[in-house]
Amino acid sequence: MLRLAEALGICDLGELTGDERLTAASFGESTHENLSEVAEALASHPISGSEEPIDVAGITARVRQGWELWHGSRRHRTTLATILPGLLRDTRTAVRRVDGDERRTLLSAQAQVYHLAQLYLSFQPASELLWLTGDRAMTAAQDADDPHAMAAAAW
Fold first, then answer.
1. If DSSP codes are grouped into helix, strand and coil, which group holds residue 109?
2. SS in 3 state form for 68-103?
3. pLDDT score, position 131
4. Which of 13, 71, 73, 88 has the most CB atoms around it within 10 Å of its CB?
5. CA–CA dist 155, 149 (Å, integer)
6. Are the CB atoms for 111 and 152 separated by under 8 Å?
């Protein structure tokens, strides 16, 4: 409906739907207030100079927290945006610093973080970032050799 309204130069979808009044601005090109921070985290390539051990359990717990925030808040984008940039940076850094099973665990967690980022980016004027997160989610899931993460990334 939005594409049709745009093609016809109609700003009020009510002109297409009759009595059901809904303006195109309601679902158009609105940008979430934290989009720039999430975009910056996606574009950054953090380098950790720290030699402290990676807290794999702590990172996976933060990913679970992200899902709880997404599913448990009425303002899920705003709530998720408080931790999403840090999760994006931390999983990218941590994955490079571990091997073996810890790396697979973190790659699976990273795929979930990118999936959360996809959900955050949905319905925002940042389609290039949405495609980027989908690709990164699938790559991380495949590198983890985790069928569940691959299925979620494909979704």
1. helix
2. HHHHHCCCHHHHHHCCHHHHHHHHHHHHHHCCHHHH
3. 92
4. 88
5. 10
6. yes
